[in-house]
Amino acid sequence: MNEPLEVFIGLHCIEPFCGFAGHLLLPFSQYRDKTQLLIKNLVNPEWCIETISAAWRLSLNEIFLTGSFEDNKHNDRYLQKLTGLKLISITYRNKTDLTLFFENTYQLDIFTQGVSFPVLEVYSQTNDTIENCIVLHTSGNWTKYSLDEFTDVDKIADAHAENCANRWKKTLPPKAFDNHCRDCAYFLPNSGRFYFWDFGLCSNGKSIFDGKVVGVKNSYEYFDDTLNP
Predict the structure, then answer these.
(1) Cβ atoms 150, 84 nearer than 8 A
(2) pLDDT in tens for each of the 229 residues of the chain?
(3) Which residue among 132, 136, 167, 200 sits deepest, i.e. has the most Cβ atoms within 10 Å of its Cβ?
């Protein structure tokens, strides 16, 4: 199999996003911003790199800026600096650890930290089928994503997570363009695998969602970026 990351060289990073537990999504496009995507009738950037069991750190001129163990607000502040930047080159430190070099001397180091799950996956967002998802394993090998790789326990956990997500979506606050629940000081991240990282718990006593599941991209009128006992 050819090196799957070669397709990203020369593409622009569009709105990188850090989810639960430092889970990083890096959408890439031949176009520099979302306005150009819309002109071309594209809903999403064409490609995406997504970390699974890997940690990461972002630096500028070899000065550390942020990493996978920082909070979402801190990560968003610095990750947005990659928006619109072209990926210049990729260097492997070993079979699974690599560095992405961007314009303006930004670099993103990605390094594996577990053996039970793949390091990262690469997929097309214009053709989001399983056949278009490539997975980097801790062995250093790239394979096409396959449901056959799931154990029976994984399949049960996946079905449980999906059922929970489908139930919870019916009672979530409305989605918004800003003031997302995940950025609220009263948001408590949810642990777990599969669909669970899309949700958390509201702990704001003023909210009708206090003690209830909310989505990372949802919002409510009592959003606050500072705890106020």
Answers:
(1) no
(2) 458 899 899 999 998 988 766 789 999 999 998 888 888 888 889 999 999 889 999 999 989 999 988 877 788 889 999 999 999 999 999 999 999 999 999 999 999 988 877 899 898 887 654 457 888 988 899 988 765 566 777 778 888 988 998 999 888 888 777 788 888 999 988 876 777 878 899 999 999 999 999 998 888 888 998 888 7
(3) 136
CA distances from 64 to 45, 58, 120, 229 (A): 27, 6, 22, 33
Residue whose entry in the numeric block shows the structure tokens 């053996």: 115
φ, ψ dihedrals at 109, nearest 5°: -95, 130
Q: Which two tokens stand for residue 173?
A: 């606050």
Tokens (6 digits) for 50: 């997504």
Determine the Cα angle at 102 with ends 97 and 107, to 5°: 45
212 alpha-carbon distance from chain centroid: 23
Give the long-range contacts of residues 164-172, CB within 8 A, separation 24 or more. 164/195, 164/196, 165/195, 165/196, 165/198, 165/199, 168/199, 168/213, 168/215, 169/215, 171/212, 171/213, 172/213, 172/214, 172/215, 172/218
What tokens were used for 57? 């750190």
pTM of the model: 0.70
* Token pair belonging to 178: 């800003």
